Amino acid sequence: xxxxxxxxxxxxxxxxxxxxxxxxxxxxxxxxxxxxxxxxxxxxxxxxxxxxxxxxxxxxxxxxxxxxxxxxxxxxxxxxxxxxxxxxxxxxxxxxxxxxxxxxxxxxxxxxxxx
Amino acid sequence: xxxxxxxxxxxxxxxxxxxxxxxxxxxxxxxxxxxxxxxxxxxxxxxxxxxxxxxxxxxxxxxxxxxxxxxxxxxxxxxxxxxxxxxxxxxxxxxxxxxxxxxxxxxxxxxxxx
Lengths: 115, 114
Known about the structure:
- The structure holds two protein chains of two kinds.
- Chain A is mainly β.
- Chain A is built from no helices and eleven strands.
- Chain A has strands at 5-7, 10-13, 19-24, 31-37, 43-50, 53-56, 65-68, 75-79, 88-95, 105-106, 110-114.
- Chain A is globular and about 40 Å long.
- In chain A, 36% of the residues are buried.
- Chain B contains no helices and twelve strands.
- Chain B has strands at 3-6, 11-14, 19-21, 23-26, 32-38, 44-50, 56-59, 62-65, 75-77, 86-93, 103-104, 108-113.
- The radius of gyration of chain B is 14 Å and the shape is globular.
């Protein structure tokens, strides 16, 4: 059973460009979580999604950031008009549909660098 | 709000040395506590967890005991190996509504030398 997959692993963007980060949850998992890790910091919760629904986006910046988890395909974290402060590692985690609170399995992360 | 504080790294130990990584937390209610490990170039893996006071989580020779009186969840291992070199994250998940967010410490990098 493949683990959580994220791509790309490394992404370089110039200021003002868009960044799209993809996350494929483990097989059979329908809950996806996105976390951001700034340099020298721990991971911070951003958003929790189930298929076609955003359950909690309380950790998402109000502007430029959006997330989706369509019925088919991976979850996408989209950052519009990137700025240098968006440079970070973005981790996706998934958990099975048995209910919230189950163990979250993490992907390897996408390292975003904004020039 | 909820927060996790873990000891600053990096920590460098010789093989077979005893390891302690301190972790304390601030939370409302009775959170669940976790240790995650991140090996170079990989994602975070759950190492162990404890869901109530006095529970002891253990895995791969690592142990941590949920101490409510000191709000701590220190990670210990009696004899580390070179393969234990990684970054270790302490985390909590609080017990109230919306209990799915993990709150992480900043991580402690461990290097074990032969």
